[in-house]
Structures are given as structure tokens and as C-alpha cells.
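user: Here is a favour to ask of a fellow structure person. I have my own habits and do not want them to colour yours. Could you put it straight underneath, so I can go through it closely?

assistant:
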Amino acid sequence: MTELSNTQGRNRPDFRYTDLREWLREADGLGEVSRMSGADTARDIGMAASLVMRNENANCVLFEDMPETATGSRLLINFFGGRRRNMTLGFPSDYSKVELSEAFHSMQQGDRPLVPPTEVSTGAVLENVLEGDDVDVTAFPAPQWHPGDGGRFIGTGCFQVSRDPDTGALNLGTYRVMVHDRNTVGSHISPGKQGRRQRDRYFERGEPMPVCIVLGGDPLTFLAACSELPEGVSEFDIVGGLRGDPVKVVNGRHTGLPFPANAEIVLEGFIDPEERRREGPFGEWTGHYGEADDQPVIRVAAIYHREAPILMGCPPQRPPDEMCRYRAITRSALLRDNIARAGVPNVTAAWAHEVGNSRMLLGVSIKQRYPGHATQAGHIAAMCHVGAYAGKYVVVVDDDIDVSNLEELMWATVTRSDPATSIDIIRGAWSSPLDPSIPPWRKEAGDTTNSRAIIDACRPYHWRETFPDVTAPAPELDKEAQRRFGWLVDGGATPPCATS
């Protein structure tokens, strides 16, 4: 299993950016920014995205001078990869992905309080304010990301700010945004999501839902908006706590909703409870197209943007892709925390696997303490806040398995589990209409539930002591082998020094 001891004492993040431009300068300093001029939004950008976003070592790409877009507007893709993923979360570049997730987990468990945002009277995002007839969403980069998409999607690397109509609590959620025309867009929010529940309550009252859509925010706030945080806790407060400094916000002129004062571009408007238009299809996080259907229209009352705004694009590709990479880091940390908070002891690691878009395949390792321990851990993982939505498989293994290593996880599954006795099935679980395995007739009836498989791939508890030994070397012997003979697999022709 991956050693994590070298992260001890280094789990205090060092954020060297507060907005997207400062982040871009840091990424540039790492040599991980590629620039492209003249790419068109109809085909070129989607093609490039399909290539670079599935390669975790590829640079981020800044598209400039795109035809038929507002002068100076830019589009950034593939922000979470290479060494910049560690920079984004404020940790050293030598952390592995598991160490990064563990550090993120420790950071949340530390003494960092929630820090509410601070309202300011002005900010860079107010450099340009477009209202009335000046509103034109189509002027900004909105690519057709996949060949089969039903339109141009301006919102993929975005987050939506909304307020609960009952409690007044703020929520930041990540929902796709499709361009209809100059002053209307559509947004798909899956049933059960916090933004959808808020929207439903506004609509039950016959009221439009106020929203602000941040199309170019700083990556840390975007990641917070992507995470399953406790309901009623504002992601702005979380980000302020992580940075140790409040997020500076300005309030929209039409909705009164706050958004970052240093954001690049923001759409402010209202979700209409009456009018619906066709939205989609769209290549979704499952690696399949989500179906087109009628979704409520968002009427854009104002556009706020900086000079030469940078929009952030994060369109899903067939997993694993960029979305899988950042979700794996943040969601794995939250998953482990959810399981432990539910009272399951000795959880040594958890990983939300990229190949399942960090939702549909979860690995959990435990140090077995009692009969039923693995079953308990598996069922909690499947039904806790992080694991409940659109999951499929949970595999529970012993603590000698690196749960982030798909080969090790599957090796434990095929050697330590028995199909007839090691698998529990949960039926009628919360899923999504985006799940391609749910039959069309069930979706038409409003049934978007699915089942879950909980696989106990631990050594059987009652005879674990006599279970056959593993042939792999003990961790200390493996380290010695790496030290002495690692050059043989690193492409070296001769040893770097004498071995002993």
C-alpha cells in the first residue's frame, strides 16, 4: 500500500493564486501552458479537448483569437493535470495522487474554520457590465464540444450560485449551460441535486429562481463547487477557510446574489418556471451522450466581465479524463471522511476510481477488526453522501491493497472474493437520468434508480489467518529492491552506483 508518512507536517496548503489569471501565471511558471490562436468553436476546440483532456500529463491549453467571438475573449481547458494539479490544491509537486487526496482530507480535518465571504463595492469583474439590449451570450466562446452535442455549451467549467428560498443558504453547484440565443440559456440539473431541489421549491411557489453563473472562476472555488459538501454550508465559506482569507464578493444588480469580485465572466438571470426549451444532447460524464429533453430557460439579465475575459472549459470526455482526475482527488478524501464519520473504524484509504468518473467504482481498504466489518464499510460507502448518487460498484479490500491502483483492486477482487457469497445487492438507489444503463421506459416513467453491488474482497474474516500468503515482497523489501534495482526498469543501461 502507498506510504503516506512523507506528507506528515506538510499538509498546510500554500495557495499562490486568488483568481484565474494568477493561477495561469503559476501554471506558466511550471511550463505547463500551451497557447493556440485562431481555433474555431464549431469543431477545432472540441477536437483538441478530446485529445488533451484524456492525458493527465498534457498541458492546459489557452485558446485565443477565436473567430466570431468577442475581441480578446479566451478559453482555458485541461487545468487539472501535470504538476499544476498539486499547485491548484496548494501542495508540493512531489505528492502522488493518493498523497494529494490524503493531504486534502487532512486539510479539511484541521483547525481551519469556515470563513464567510466579504462583500465589496467593486471588483475586476465589473469592468464591463452589459444589460438590456447589450446582453449577448453568443459573443463569448461556446464550443460544440462533442460531434453529437445538440448545441453550443458555454458552461462546462462553470459554477452556479443560488440561494435556498427557505433558509437563505447559498449553494455553489456545477451544472452544464447550453446557449439558446442572445439572452437565454438552458441548464440541466439532475433530480436530487441541491440546485435542483432549490429550483423545485421556487417553482412550487410559481417564482423564477435567481442565479448567477460564474463562467471563469478560480480553480479552487470551482473544485469546491464540484464537491459533495454538507448541505447548508456555503462553498464560499469553505474556500475562505482553506485560504485563511475571505472570498471577496460583489452582489448582482438584478438578483442580489454574490459572486467573486475577481471572476472573469458572470451571467446573472432568472430560471423561468414556465418556459422550457430543448436542451442537449450532450456528451456527459458517463462517456455516453445524455438525452435531449425540455429544460427550464434561464433569462440572462446581465453579463459582467473583465477585459479580455478567460472562460474555463471542462467538458466531460470518455473516462478517464480531466473531470475524473480532479473528482478522484477531492471525492476520495470526502468519501473516506463520510465513512469514518458514520462510525466505521479503521478505514485506511478510499478511492473513487477515475475509470468510473469517480462515482461508479469505489474502492475502500480497511484493517479488519470484527466479523461484518467489510460489509458495514461497503454499505456505508455506497449510501453515504459522497457515494449515494449514481454509484454502481463498491469493492472493500484489506489494508495491504493500494485502492487507487486499479490492477491491485481487481486482483484482490478475483482472488479474495467468491461471486456467490461475497456480493450484496442494493436496489432502488439514487441515480441519474444520465445513466445509460437505465432502460428508456423506466426513465419515461420517472424511475431513474439503479442497483449497487457491494463486493467483499477482503480475506474471509473467520479464516483470514490461514488464507494463503501473498507472493509479493514485504514493503520494506520492496523499497530495498526499488533502491538497488530500480534502474533496471527506469531505462538505465548501467547501475548509477555500486549496489550492496
